[in-house]
Write a structure and sequence with these properties.
The complex is a heterotrimer of chains A (383), B (462) and C (98). Chain A is globular, with a radius of gyration of 21 Å. In chain A, 29% of the residues lie in helices and 27% in strands. Chain A is an alpha+beta fold and 383 residues long. In chain A, strands 1, 2, 8, 9, 10, 11, 20 and 21 form an 8-stranded mixed sheet that branches. In chain A, strands 13, 15, 16, 17 and 18 form a 5-stranded antiparallel sheet that branches. Chain A has a 4-stranded mixed sheet with strand order 5-6-4-14. The relative contact order of chain A is 0.20. Chain C has a single domain, classed as Ubiquitin-like (UB roll) (Roll), CATH 3.10.20. The longest helix of chain C has 6 residues, at 32-37. Classes of the chains: A alpha+beta (383), B alpha/beta (462), C mainly beta (98). At the B-C interface, strand 9, helix 4 and strand 10 of B face strand 1 and strand 5 of C.
Chain lengths: 383, 462, 98
């Protein structure tokens, strides 16, 4: 028997973006239905590295990122758990003078946003980070950035939304969406039919299909960041580490395990991915090079996820250009965890007010059509 | 097609299944690669002591000495025709190649045909105090004796179910250790009911009867229908408090040897992409396989206890049969009468195995009785209460979700010791069966991998 | 009293090693686990509860018997043999390691 629901807002995708949108909308008094094909927060939102980092983002993301920083600060009040969130600081290392110069340039460029970045170099750097020894000439510290446990945080947003009154359906793939006279009709097999005035497309790496079905193809590709974790080790690292120019990144959690990331996995199928052996071995080599404390340690687990990437590495956030009532938020290109809650809040504002108090112009879905006219196809007639 | 394959066939595991598979491939003129984690071949059941140990096989393997010796000799005879890699851990299967770690280095070894025979380990469920020094698995207790000439304590209590329970207790007593008792979780009625089925294999049945009789005759207390209550002792075992017919009793001991049958090692089959099914008899997920040992992945075969618990004799037959299947798939001539006979004997052994399961049933009521504060996951110390809360709050209805939220099965052992218990506790809390909560996904490395594997890889690169 | 009791194979050559700074003797062919538990009662402490552990499965599955050598190396005690002069450290707690 088909269950039928009427709601104000239907959200496809229960990751950190969809989950927080559901939470904020429900708190604003909207009727919300959140539909997740898997379990909420089980995909990229739940299996990412866990960096909660503003440093390194392009300036256009920083207003949202700053708002998210404030939201993270009241995480327990919002979602009921601390999610192992710590403001450990995020230290971006420069392994050459040129890299240090580019950290200094970034520091200048983002100064108006007030991240509180601090350049530390030379003797001062070695004195402050003896554990990092001489493997960097210096670094840029964002003292209030940090890290959290994505396995716990991301599902908690959807759970909090459910507690606040949202309808949250897991194991519920949406296989049919159409625009109706008054809004949208969504179906999950024969079991569920939802009518909603507003539709939010928050389904991560799988968002492209939904956008395309409304005549907005996006050059979205999937990639699989590779991560590994050690057995619990004595504490030696109290700051989240990145490296200027990319490569390995690492953090040590309260329980002692060191999480490192770098390189790519490979897709098993459309839904699943696994770290690639060469990526794992290279990551291990680079990690032990950066953290000699790991030389006698073991990797006990590796993993990856399926994440949607855009060509310019900026997400797509905002109203559809083809379909009134449709909003997108996806393509976070491996950097959606920290910013996700503010994106959910911005979506809620878009639904309520028609605009968000954070600037979103840089994230318009139309930017790709401008860059590649071939993408600007006419909307298919089916919807 | 009778050309030699591009890559040598690979066998993982040098126990009864792996050795017989290797022997069969060598007889057909192939040179298989045999990769084994142990220093010497034989598997767990026929594990050989280190070089220089003196005891005769009769003392080590009892009634099975002849079989152990035959298996050891079979491998010794084919060694020149085999690429044998002992002390080597297969930590990953990816894209028709294995990753093999040995002495801190990792090597990628491509394959076209792979026989997985990594065996099984004890199946365990938690009870209060089960992480206390002095509590060992039944199989581990046997390894201590057979491989190291040691008893796990001076007064050892045996707890659990399955044929191994009485065998190891008997071996301990024969070796001069004090056996404080044998506490069988199965009931006398279970065993009586299973007698007709067990008589399908009169020799094995007779051995079982012999061990029990011998133990009783030598004054060892033997009780059935037992459930453990708690270990006493903080830093080491001082006693086990147990319950039978609603009455609590206490047995002083300094070690407990504990096991509830065996659980298959299936991580590599999982990484190889094999389809799995829930086996009601093993109460576990096992790779789907044909009677010949073919899995759902072409060129990947499973044999022995890793494909479903069937014991050493069946493992020898399954190893040979899987190797014949591999040869058939290479287009080589194969003795089809022999293949058919092996399948027939394997089917008979499966029927006997069913009777054994009846005689030594899995204690399905155990999980519900585990107190909330008892650790289920030894690695991450996740308690039964944490798992129940996640189930009760509707946060986890599936085992990988439970893992993500609670860390159960996330530690060093990747759920080998807690996976069965977590599935039992979750399904009991949800009011379903253990088949309904799914199976823990395997993740490379299947066992801890030293960082040196990455360093050396980098140095080896141009 | 040590946890493990030798009941056979006792005529092997002695192997000197150091356990938590104390000179000890094992026998040739002993695993590190056997060497430690015939000289003591535990292999390590849990990183989380601090409770003592002494191994469990003895066949490389449970990963409960990892020990640390003084030089920083970490070994699974049940599947590595004791070597003359090895310095093994038990009771390792997070933070105790240099």
């Amino acid at each position: 028997m088909t269950e039928r629901l009427e709601t104000d807002v239907a959200i496809v995708g229960g990751g950190i973006v969809g989950g927080s949108a559901a939470l904020f909308l429900t708190r604003m008094g909207f009727k919300v239905a959140l539909l997740e094909r898997d379990w909420c927060g089980a995909k990229a939102s739940g299996v990412n590295y866990g960096g909660v980092r503003r440093q390194g983002r392009p300036p256009e993301q920083l207003p949202l990122s700053q708002r998210s920083h404030a939201i993270w600060g009241r995480l327990p009040e919002l979602v009921g758990i601390d999610g192992e969130y710590v403001r450990s600081g995020h230290l971006k290392l420069a392994r050459s003078e040129a890299d240090l110069a580019s950290l200094v340039a970034y520091n200048k460029k983002v100064e108006p946003f007030g991240l509180g970045l601090e350049i530390i170099a030379g003797e001062a750097f070695r004195a402050r980070y003896p554990a990092l020894g001489d493997r960097a000439v210096g670094g840029s510290l964002c003292p209030e950035d940090g890290h959290a446990n994505p396995r716990l945080v991301s599902p908690a947003f959807a759970r909090a939304a459910a507690k606040a009154g949202a309808v949250v359906r897991e194991q519920t793939p949406v296989d049919h969406v159409e625009r109706t006279g008054t809004g949208f009709l969504l179906r999950s097999g024969d079991s569920l039919e939802i009518r909603a005035r507003i539709l939010l497309n928050c389904s991560g790496a799988w968002s492209g299909r939904l956008a395309e079905s409304f005549g907005e193809p996006v050059p979205l590709s999937s990639a699989h960041p590779c991560m590994a974790v050690t057995e619990p080790l004595p504490r030696f690292l109290d700051v989240n580490i990145g490296v200027e120019g990319g490569g390995v990144y690492g953090r040590q959690v309260e329980r002692g395990n060191v999480v490192v990331g770098g390189g790519r996995g490979f897709a098993l199928d459309a839904d699943r991915a696994r770290p690639a052996r060469n990526a794992v071995l290279t990551l291990m080599g680079e990690a032990v090079d950066l953290f000699p404390q790991l030389r006698h340690a073991h990797v006990i687990r590796t993993w990856t996820g399926v994440e949607g990437y855009t060509p310019d590495r900026n997400p797509i956030i905002g109203a559809s250009a083809t379909t009134p009532g449709l909003f997108h938020a996806f393509g976070f290109s491996g950097a959606g965890f920290q910013i996700g809650p503010a994106v959910g809040e911005a979506l809620a504002e878009l639904v309520r007010d028609g605009h968000s108090s954070a600037p979103l112009d840089a994230f318009s879905i139309t930017r790709f059509a401008k860059a590649d006219p071939a993408l600007s196809v006419a909307a298919p007639a089916g919807h | 097609m009778t050309d030699a394959p591009v890559h040598p066939p690979i066998i993982v595991g040098a126990g009864p299944a792996g050795v017989r598979a290797a022997e069969t491939l060598v007889a057909a003129g192939l040179r298989p690669l045999v990769i084994d984690e142990a220093a010497r071949w034989g598997g767990q059941i026929y594990r050989q002591p280190p070089e220089g140990f003196q005891r005769p096989k009769r003392a080590l393997y009892g009634f099975e000495a002849g079989k152990a010796d035959a298996l050891h000799r079979a491998m010794a005879d084919i060694l020149p025709a085999v690429d044998y890699r002992p002390r080597s851990l297969v930590w990953n299967v990816e894209n028709s190649a294995l990753d093999v770690a040995r002495d801190g280095r990792s090597e990628t070894v491509p394959f076209s045909h792979l026989i997985l025979a990594p065996g099984a380990t004890d199946r365990v469920l938690p009870f209060p105090g089960w992480t206390t020094p002095g509590v060992f698995t039944l199989g581990g207790s046997q390894v201590a004796l057979k491989f190291q000439g040691c008893a796990v304590g001076s007064r050892v209590l045996f707890l659990g179910t399955g044929p191994l329970l009485y065998l190891v207790a008997y071996q301990y007593a024969k070796a001069g250790a004090t056996v404080a008792g044998v506490l069988d979780t199965s009931g006398f009625a279970d065993q009586a009911r299973a007698v007709p089925g067990m008589l399908r294999d009169p020799a094995t049945f007779a051995k079982g009867v012999y061990y029990v009789g011998w133990l009783r005759a030598h004054g060892v207390p033997v009780h059935s229908g037992v459930r453990p209550v708690r270990i006493e002792g903080a830093d080491r075992v001082e006693a086990l408090v147990w319950r039978r017919n609603g009455r609590e009793q206490r047995t002083a001991c300094d070690a407990v040897a504990f096991g509830l049958g065996l659980r298959p090692e299936t991580q590599l089959a999982d990484l190889a992409g094999c389809r799995f099914r829930f086996d009601a008899m093993d109460r576990a997920w096992v790779p789907e396989r044909s009677a010949a040992g073919r899995t759902s992945v072409a060129g990947v075969y499973v044999a022995g206890d890793s494909a479903g618990i069937a014991g050493a004799d069946a493992a020898e037959m399954a190893g040979e049969r899987a190797a014949l299947a591999l040869l058939e798939d290479l287009g080589r001539p194969v003795d089809s009468t022999r293949a058919a006979l092996l399948e027939q004997n394997l089917a008979a052994s499966a029927r006997f195995r069913r009777a054994l399961t009846d005689a030594f049933p899995f204690p399905t009521d155990w999980a519900a009785a585990v107190p909330d504060d008892t650790p289920v996951c030894r690695c991450e110390e996740v308690s039964a209460g944490t798992l129940r809360k996640a189930a009760r709050d509707g946060e986890a209805a599936e085992i990988n979700r439970l893992k993500a939220l609670t860390r159960v099965g996330m530690g060093r052992c990747q759920g080998r010791m807690c996976g069965a218990a977590a599935a039992e506790i979750l399904s009991q809390a949800l009011g379903t069966g253990p088949d309904a909560v799914g199976r823990l996904r395997g993740q490379p490395p299947v066992k801890p991998l030293p960082f040196s594997a990455g360093i050396l890889d980098k140095e080896a690169a141009p | 009293m040590p946890l493990l009791q030798r009941v056979a194979e006792t005529s092997r050559r002695a192997v000197p090693f150091v356990l938590d700074g104390r000179p000890c003797e094992a026998l040739e062919g002993d695993t590190i686990l056997t060497a430690l538990l015939t000289n003591g009662e535990q292999l390590r402490r849990s990183e989380f509860s601090g409770q003592p552990r002494a191994g469990f499965c003895l066949m490389g599955a449970c990963q409960d018997c990892w020990v640390r050598l003084e030089d920083g190396r970490r070994l699974r005690a049940c599947s590595n043999f004791i070597e003359p002069g090895m310095h093994v450290v038990t009771g390792a707690q997070p933070g105790a390691q240099p």
